[in-house]
Specification:
Blueprint lengths: L9 H20 L1 E13 L2 E4 L7 E2 L1 E4 L3 E4 L5 E3 L2 H14 L2 E2 L7 E2 L2 E12 L5 E10 L6 H4 L4 H25 L12 H5 L1 H5 L17 H14 L13 H28 L34 H44 L1
Antiparallel strand pairs: 1-2, 1-6, 1-9, 2-3, 4-5, 7-8, 9-10
Helix pairs in contact: 8-9
Length: about 350
Amino acid sequence: MLGTPEEPGIYVNALQHLYSRLEAARKDKGVSFEVTLSYVEIYNEHIRDLISYSGDTLDLREDPLKGPVVADVTLLKVTSTDHVMSVLAQGNANRTQESTAANAESSRSHAVLQILVEQKARGADTKRVGKLSMIDLAGSERAAKTRNSGIRLQEGANINRSLLALGNCINALGTATRGSFVPYRDSKLTRLLKDSLGGNCRTVMIAAVGPTAGAFEETVNTLKYASRASRIKTHVKRNVVNVNYHIAEYEELITHLRVEIDDLKGKLEETEPPSPLMGGRGPSMGGPGTPGGGGRRSSMRLESPATTAVLRDLRQSLVDNFQERMQLQRSLIELQATNSQNNFEISKR
C-alpha cells in the first residue's frame, strides 16, 4: 500500500491523482478545496491513532450525518502529496509490526487511512464533501505456517476474526435483497467500513497473492474472498445539500417577497380611487390668490362610476394575484423542507 520512494504504492499513486484533479478543478472552476486525513489502526479489536500515537484506544461512534466516526481522532490538514507521505511514514513507524515464519515484516493490525475533501465555490453557502478510505488489511496466513504462539497467536486470531466478519458483510451485501440484515457490528473493522461497503460510495478490493506452489491454498482463498466483493451493488448519488444552503435560500426568497410586497403596495397606492369631490391628494388649502395657497391649484376632478368600478376590479385582481403567489411560495418552501427531511431520513438509514 505504501511502497518505496523508488516504487510508490497505492497510497501515493491515488493521492497524486487526487491532487492533480483538485488543482485542475481549482484553476478551471475557481473552487477551493480543503483536504484533511486521519490514520488509525485496528489492533486486537482496539482502535489506535497512528498520527498522534499515545497507545490509548479510541471509541467508535455513530454520527447521524457523518456515519461511523472515531472519537478524538487526529484530523490533519494536508496540502500536498509530500506532506501526506511524511504523515504516512510517521504513522507506519507507529504501526504494530512483528516478524513471523511466513513474513519478516508482518502487519499485526489493519490500517485505515481516511481522506476527507471539502469543495466550496466562491461566494456560495454550499459544500460538497467526499471521503476516500484506503484500508491496508493485515495478512491472514495459516497458523501452521506462521508458527505463532502467545501474543502473536492471539493477534492472528483477532485478525482472522475481523476478516471473517468482513467476509460475512461482503456476502450479505452481494446476495442481499432490499432491507435485509448486514452484520456490520460483528467487529470494529466492519463498523468503521460501513460507509465504504454499503454506503454512498464505490468499492474496490485489491488482492495480493503469491505465485508459489507453497501459497496455493492461501492464493485460492484470497481470490475467492475478493471475487465475492465484486458482487456488491451500490447506488451512488450526490450528497444531500446541507442545511446552511436551505437557510440561505429561504432568506433570499423572503427578501424577494418583501420587495414584491412593497412594489404591489406602491401600485395599489397609485391606483387608489380618488374622492368623488376632490383630487387624489386631498383638499387644497387655497388657490393661487388665497393666503397660504403656495401657488397650488385645487384639484377638482370627478370620477365616473365606470372608472371607479374598473379601478376597484384592478385592485382586487392585484390582491388576489399577490395572495396566490404567496400561497405558491409557501407551498414551495414546505415541499423543499419535506424533501430535505426525507433525504436526511434516507441518509440515516
